[in-house]
Amino acid sequence: MSDDKRTDGGILRWGIKKSLREYVAGPADGQFTVNGSVVPLDVESFGFPATASAYDISTGLGMLRFEGTVEFTGHHGMRVATVTDPWIQITPEGAVLSTVRWPGRAARIVLANLVLGQPTHENGRLAWHNVSATLSTEGGEIFGDVYAAGEALDPISIEVLAN
Length: 163
Fold this sequence. Notes:
The protein is mostly beta strands and 163 residues long.
């Protein structure tokens, strides 16, 4: 990881879904756009910078918030999927990743169920690598219900400042 690919407060690295990226790359006018502070890290992932996050090391519970938007468009500019301001909520029941349901609105939708595990401590940061993510029951809505609940999404890597 190079320092120019990491924000001071942390970062969520995620490709979202490989088959989606491949689909969007197919049409001549298919593309993805990034807005806000999101940066394309390579051809397979995007970096969403951390905002206000809180994680209790003793309980393993918290809310990790990231900002920015990645929008995928297909043939003739048709919106295929949008992921905006992903948040990870960690509760005793497990961890989920949510996104803004519709761009420009505050309502959120659980996009993915995560298998988070315990973080490692690296250079004053908490880090989770290769976190397994599967599409939630309601998350298919973000992709136009093309993918089924339980389908694998790309693995996620997370870094946040250790409080």
